[in-house]
Amino acid sequence: MAFCEIAFRDLTENPFSLIGDDWMLITAGTEEKCNTMTASWGGLGVLWNTPVAFTFIRPQRYTKEFVDAQEEYSLCFFEGMHDKLGYLGKVSGRDEDKIEKAGLTVAVEDGVPYFKEARLVLFCRKKYRQQMTPEAMLDSDIIAKFYPQNDFHEMYVGEVTKILKKEV
User: Fold this and answer.
1) What element of type H or E holds 37?
2) How would you classify the pairing of strands 50-57 and 106-109?
């Protein structure tokens, strides 16, 4: 199956299901070397009159080094691959070639890595990032529940520059 490019306004997927239920892979790097991580937190919307994606990455994640080093990254969405995405979220690319072990195939579009097995790919250009801090948390229960090690996420806002969808 091939991909076709779709317009931002033609994306009809429910972002709550897409991210929260189906999960996504945040992928960055080069054609020669990239890394990916599973994420089930994030968002899609409009900011600065631009379609954007919000992603959150903890400081210890290996993928963060790749996202920080590049201007662009991809968000890949799959169907029926929770086992593989669960594995990719638990194992570090520092320790093994987890992409190969998961059986995914890296492709590159405009210098940005993504996966041929995805059903939907959003290409993003970093526009903003900010470290989350305990002082900014308005609900202290969030800190106790999600940040007992004080490893607060860094938030990235990426302009969605292109969307590819698998042709059916």
Assistant:
1) strand 34-39
2) unpaired
